[in-house]
Amino acid sequence: MIRVNKNKKNRRIGFTLLEMVLVIAIMMMMSFYLYSTFRTVNFSHLKVAVVNDMHDYASLTLKAIQNHLCNATSIGDGADIKLSDQADYVLINDANALPGFTQYHTGNGSAKWGLSLKISTDRTSKTVHVVLELTDRAYPASGIAYTDEVTIYCPSCTPDNMAELTDADHCSFSNEPITT
After folding, report:
1. CB neighbours of 53 closer than 8 A, spacing ≥ 6?
2. What pLDDT was estimated at residue 122?
3. DSSP element (H, E) containing 108
4. What is the pLDDT of residue 151?
5. Is residue 9 part of a domain?
6. How far apart are CA 38 and CA 126, in angstroms?
7. Is residue 84 part of a domain?
8. Cα–Cα distance between 90 and 98 in angstroms, integer?
9. Contact present, 71 and 178 (Cβ < 8 Å)
10. Looking at residue 176, what DSSP letter applies?
């Protein structure tokens, strides 16, 4: 005969359905908060990456312009340095100033950044001041997104061989030796 002790309570093993539902609900709420945090961090990282690429694009373009103008013997009003037809990159002698560097594109296939080029000369100091402004075409209402500028000293130019340019969007230059 088996003896049953009625004073001992039955011990339950495992979790009840209510406990399981509570744990799952808490885990779902925590995962929502974690997901939103990771998403915010990811988007802020992407914005920083785009701004860094914009900075690199502007700096490299200005460095290419500087490399061509620093040895110029004459600077005039022409089209050796100009913007492309869509104003998405700078042309130097009808070639892309940065041939291997492509910028981001918007959903409609156009370049993400629109460029604005302003070139000014100072004949007395034999310098050329170049300002490059980038606008974000994906968010046109944001206005100018980045501006970079450089002042280039042209030791081989004479004041007579420099045209008076004020905020021009193009210029020409020559590296031909000056004959006297």
Report:
1. 103, 104
2. 93
3. none
4. 95
5. no
6. 53
7. yes
8. 8
9. no
10. P
Q: What is the pLDDT of residue 11?
A: 63
For residue 176, the one-letter residue type is E
pLDDT of residue 126: 92
Question: Which tokens in the block code for residue 6?
Answer: 């009625």
Tokens 């007579």 belong to: 160
| β-bridge pairing 95-96 and 74-83 | unpaired
- Phi, then psi, of 92 in degrees rounded to 5: -120, 115
Domain with 101, as residue range(s), is 51-174
Q: What is the pLDDT of residue 105?
A: 80
Per residue in 113-172, pLDDT tens? 889 999 999 999 999 999 999 988 877 777 778 899 999 999 988 888 899 999 889 999
How many residues in the chain?
180
Q: Note whether residue 123 is domain-resident.
A: yes
177: which 2 tokens? 């030796």
Give me the number of domains the chain comprises.
1
Q: Please indicate, yes or no, if residue 101 is contained in any of the structural domains.
A: yes
